[in-house]
Amino acid sequence: MRVRNNDYRPIRPAADFEPELRVSVVIPAYGAQDKLDLVLAGLARQTYPAGLTEVIVVDNGSDPPLRLPADCPPDTRLIRCETPGRGSARNAGLAEATGDVIHWLDSDVVPTAGAITAHMRWHHAAPYLAVTGYIRFSESPLPEKLPDDMEAYFEPAEPHAWIVRLVERTDGLTDNGERPFSLHVGGATSVSARLIEAAGPMDGDLVLGQDTEMGYRLMQAGAVFVPEPEARAYHLGPTMRMRHKERIDRVSYAFIGDRIPAYRWLRRHPGRTWKIPYLEVLVDGTAGYDTVRATVDALLAGTAHDLRVVLVGPWDTLERDRRAPLRDPNLELELVRGHYAYESRVRLAADDRVDPAVPYVLRLPPGWAPGEDSVAALLERARTEGLGLINILLDETPDGVVSARLERAASFARARLLAGPGEDLDDVVDEVSGIVWVSGESCGFAGEQPAPQGRRSAYRARVAAQAEAERLAKETERLRGEVARWRDEAGKWRKSAVEYRREIATLRKEAAGLRRDLSAADRSRQTLRTAFSARVKRALRK
């Protein structure tokens, strides 16, 4: 089954599967014998076959030493790890494990009877999964013996709110292509042993956050992360994180920011370099000093600052000719090495192998220089669209197509797990993540490009932008003043218009009165004229 990104829904585990895989339950423990006894009693009740289950308890230096109680699974053994730290203890248990699946379990987390079966149902359906169960936090007093009805005894209990929220806001983690590894918690997660072998053990240098950091490397190795609500367990009391979340986050973030590039919000500083960069760019370092420098300098000057350039060449074979350097047949390689030997974001390598923890790899032919924002824009598109590969068409020549490739490492790791004999890896990547082609010209790549100005030009551009913003702000204020003045003028005009309308109405009334007076005068005149005519006529008759 080929899952696209982290959408595991096409995988349909059978409820009545035939158990075949062996599971190793690894429990790091330090003191708290009473809680460990309850955890082992819970494991002894599992419905998954005991013959396919081994339990490895790692005593991480307890004083007095821990012991195995009578009520525990048949294949349970106790080992001791004196190196302090849960990561070291888990690695010690991992080294002893023989199972097809590794199930991490904390020494204060009691699984319900069907928990391991719920995990293993998924692992029988696909060999590249990390399955996390649901933990509920109970504050019920510790019983001397594990109750028959665990749910009745340990409830009411609080859910693992952070996991519940993560699952709900990502549609069951199916639309979270970049950070599903956050679900990998050491108290309730099972992982294919094959994936752990590819990803490597837990980071023993970390004080906190080992689970998350390993989850990130599992994702890089091709894992699909599945939340399984039927795999239930009870945490005996609140966790240290629940009691001191802000303080623990402060310690954890100080270390995992260097190791988990996907936590981009921990990498806001624009000038820092990190242990694991977000991008590695592979460039052939043998193409000539000027050609290589045009590409590398453009990369270093871009807005995608969280990167490392890997120059591939026979660097270990160089022997500098101190007597006649200009006649040195390896002069071009010497110039490249000398120019970038002390640049922290450039690594000289003998081959094109990349760090599997790096999320993205750009394979760029020398001589092609990306624009200032070209690489950042490609990375953003790959991230937001969940793409496994972006092919950048740079040129077409009689000898063929010249292209660059931006690869998502996790997609190619998944494809290598799934590819059949002779199957083209890119075709599998297209199925599990997607592939697109883009034009190099449209992305700002050029065969010839002016020398990059880098941060100085960015600084000048920022200063110019700030000056322009200030000018526009002043112009805006001036225009606002003009608008206010025009509004005042318009108000006066409206007031004058009202007064004029009133005067006109008064004049109209006066005119109407005058017209009435004139009309009355005309009638009086006509009456007088008629009377005078009649008088004249009477006088003439006499």
From TrEMBL:
EC number(s) recorded for this UniProt protein: 2.4.-.-
GO molecular function, one term: glycosyltransferase activity
Stored Pfam families: Glycos_transf_2
Keywords recorded for this protein, A-Z: Coiled coil, Glycosyltransferase, Transferase
Enzyme's top EC category: transferase
Domain Glycosyltransferase 2-like, chain residue ranges per copy: 24-145
Coiled coil: 462-524
Family: Belongs to the glycosyltransferase 2 family.
Protein name per the record: Glycosyltransferase
Native organism: Nonomuraea harbinensis
